[in-house]
Fold:
Amino acid sequence: MIRVQVRPNEPLEAALRRFKRQCNYAGIFRLAKKHAYHEKSSDKKRREDRERMRNIMIAERKRSGTTNPRAKKRRTRGGKGGDRRNDQPDFDPLTADTTIQKPDAPATTPAKPEAGAATTTAAAPAAAAAAATTPSSES
Structure:
């Protein structure tokens, strides 16, 4: 049984708040709501199972130490391709170049020629061949 004594110079509203708080802590309001109407045995079993599962989930969250238990996890779509939103495309769609390296893979670069070595380009042999076939005006 819950008792609340009104203190000297305490307003009646404050004593009533204390009484309601003690009733709430003791579970009297819950019992009153529970017995306000008839609950079928199947509904009672289903409710108790839900309460049990909720208590288990809360205990697991406390044990694992998650900071935000209400945070939703992102769902990933299944399939062979995986999540392509974060990955770079395998090719450049504008030039249809399939030699693009992914950012996490090291890019291969050709070796730099030494400063004193002679370099040839594709244009240099073609220019030399063209000069050799043209007749010279000095002869």
Summary: Residues 6 and 15 are 6 Å apart (CA to CA).
